[in-house]
Amino acid sequence: MAIEKEFSKNTASLKKRSLAIDSEDTSGDRSGLVKSRDREYFLRKAFREDPWEGCTLIFKHYYSPLCSHAIRYVYSQAYAEDIVSEVFMEFWQKKHFEKIHTTYRTYLFQAVRNRALNFVRKEFGRELDPITEGELLGKSLSPEQIMVHEEFYQKVQEGIEQLPPKCKKVFLMSRNEGKPIKEIAAQQKISVRTVETHISKALKMMREVLVQTNH
Amino acid sequence: MKHNQMERALLIRYFSGGVTPLEKSRVENWLSDDVNLEYFYEVLEEWERGSAQFIPDQTAALDRFTQRINQHPSEGKKKSSHDNNNRGFIHRWGLWLAVASILMLLMIGVGLKDSLMYETYQTGYGMTQKVQLADGSEVVLNANSSLRVSRWMNWTATREAWVTGEAYFSVKRTPTPKKFIVYTAQLSVEVLGTKFNIKDRDNTARVVLREGKVKVASRKEQKEVAVLAEEGDYAEMTDSSEVFVTKKVDPELYTTWKEKQLKFVDAPLPKVLSEIGSYYGNHIICRDSATMQKQFTGTLPNDDLTIILKTLGNIYRTEFLPQKAKSLK
Question: What is the ipTM of this complex?
């Protein structure tokens, strides 16, 4: 019977707070964090009234920070954005928003981190059995599982720092600025071929990091 | 909340990779308390906003997202208030239809023909078949297997299916939780939304879980005997002795047949041959008894019996011969 109880468990509604909706960024002081909790409450209310409205709001609110986080795992803006969009896709299509028992933020960040890591693992041919988003709804990750993420993207960052200056510059132009190879070549006054070599060197580094951090 | 400024600063340093091993294990300890998770991601969001790696074009992204969702209207789509009214209308109608059909079923009851109530799929030897059910769930039927499902599963209180042979279920969760029950001769498996393999051959039923959670019950004794909750959980029940076994297995080994492959790890050769035989409706014999003592590890492409037997023959330097069997269930 426990199984039914678990399945039918309603998404716990958050404690009621005064509704101070603030559309500005919350970076900074503690009052910002309190405001962001109110925002979660407000979003939850929006989802109850009109799921699509809620989904749009949540997309607008979290898309940027999620992309910024996703790119730490991968090597192009496009992939980072794809990962985040896929998470939102599944969130909407499988109606995960009805089932989550954490805040939307926690769910979304966990899902993006999880998907991003799975993506690189798959990309570099080291696929472990991945955790699905459906599973993320039902159980909380262990500290080790959480920390694998920090470990991975920090190692990537370290690896980037250790690349030769030119190589690092080219790679970041390609990844973080989303510039096409041709444009980078023109700007740096080097050949397309050299740009490609720099990038593939950076990718090799990422692969090595992956091999080190995957146990 | 009980978190202090110090923790926040520590977490931010932790995200940017500037912590000592001691501080790191402090974070790890702190994280083992679920209560702290929310704060962890709260600070992560804050950190990402403060040190954004790049600024995506959010408006364009939202447009793409909306477009993609509108391309899959069946999954739920953007709706105007007009659609909203419409939906309420249909919703009410749906309820009446459900009531009417239940009444109808009650009235006609047992007199209704089986074929009207149920749909049956049957596979022959050497073939698999993918079946899409009315509720969106998917079933892959292995060779020489059958599946019977209610035609009206969207209207009934529970979704039900009957299996002989072997089938892989990907059960879709319904918006309001509605049980899906799979029956074999021996047992029933109850789920809400999950993926699992079920096999009922040689008077033994075996269930292997891929995803989600299922409840297994004995049909004879009408009671729950196991809950499979992790990938690779396995349950087995025989017809005669009602012996029930649960253990942990590699689910790959039980589900690669879907991809037309047979995967074995340290499997005794007779078992390998009987597995292949049950797929093609043959007994496979090997006269070399020393070979039959051996074990096999590997993946065989499962689309041509002659090729499989040739491959095995090459490996063991002997001959494997098919013999047509009457019935292998």
Answer: 0.80
What is the chain A residue with the closest CA to B63? A56
CA distance B6 to chain A (A): 12
**Helices and strands (H, E) in chain A, number of each type:** 10, 0
Q: Quick check: B116 and B151 in contact, CB under 8 A?
A: yes
Q: Compare B187 and A17 and report the one with higher pLDDT.
A: B187
Strands B146-150 and B138-141: unpaired
Token pair 């069997």 in the structure block, residue = B325
Look at phi and psi of residue B97 and say left if phi exceeds 0, alpha if psi is from -120 to 50, else beta: alpha
Cβ pairs A/B, distance under 8 A: 139
| Contact (Cβ atoms closer than 8 angstroms) between residue B195 and residue B170 | yes
For B131, phi then psi, to 5°, come to: -120, 130
Taking the complete model, does pTM exceed 0.80, yes or no?
no
CA proximity to A112, closest of B10, B45, B231: B45
Structural contact between residues A100 and A107, judged by C-beta atoms closer than 8 angstroms: yes
Percent of chain B with pLDDT over 90: 12
Within 8 A of B193 by CB-CB distance, chain A residues are: 134
